[in-house]
Write a structure and sequence with these properties.
With 303 residues, the protein is α+β, with helices and mostly antiparallel strands. The chain contains seven helices and 18 strands.
Length: 303
Amino acid sequence: MLVEVKENYPVKNLTSFKIGGDVEKLYFPKSEAEFTYLLKTLKNPLIFGSWSNVLISSDGIKGNVISTSMLNGIDINDTTVEAQCGVKGPMLAQKVTEHGLTGFEFMAGFPGSIGGNIYMNASAHKQAISDYLVGIKVFDLQSKEIVEIKKEAVNFAYRSSILQKKPFVLLSAKFDLAKESKEKITETIRNNLLFRKAHQPNLAMPNAGSIFKNPEGFSAGRLIDEAGAKNLAVGGAKIWEKHANFIVNSEQKATSTDVLELMLKMHNAVLEKFEINLEPEVKFFGEKTSREDYICNILYNQK
């Protein structure tokens, strides 16, 4: 089966952080059949949807990478909605609004794909991707089979799902939304976007979303601020002035090392003042320099 592939492809402009080197082989499947074919035949491929919530190495990624950006089918039948893994949240929010369906207003303001949103159990404004989920269809990398999983077995928790614990790759998801007036849905979306504009940087100022998870009972941003780290910067990476849990690449000159160094400073400041280990929400992928390897061991391998 022939699947579109690009070699030594620069992914910097694909990422919401506008950081990243070349990918050795980047595949663009256009159907579930092409996607599962790649999953059956490629060795240990990395999979990306909207390239948000990730930090890609400035030295790039060796090996095989799959982009799900073309797996963007949406099927709406009354209140039932099925979406492929590569559908972006804002697009899905727009489509269901046109059908007078509520439940996805929270996704209007951030760029994640459905695959990534379910992987991390995305939520905002008292809504979560898990609220209206019926079930998911995944590819099991061990058995090489397609498996359907009901919501109860997805094991959703804060920023967590079964996709982080099992060798499963999301193919699509099914939801059962609720009916609501388009006017009310649109008003909720407008309020959400206004809140986001005031509290989070937009993608005109490249970023990867929240850098650290909120420790139970605490706000990561407040901890970083109170630890005196809010005004820190390293190279082209700096903490956003309006919220300390965001790193921005405002002049698009930051490297992956700049971001990791800044994350380490933020982490250490909070650890020293509050004895709390902040756990990264942003994931790092790709080749590491020796310094990056050292920092990643501290940030991502905490016991």
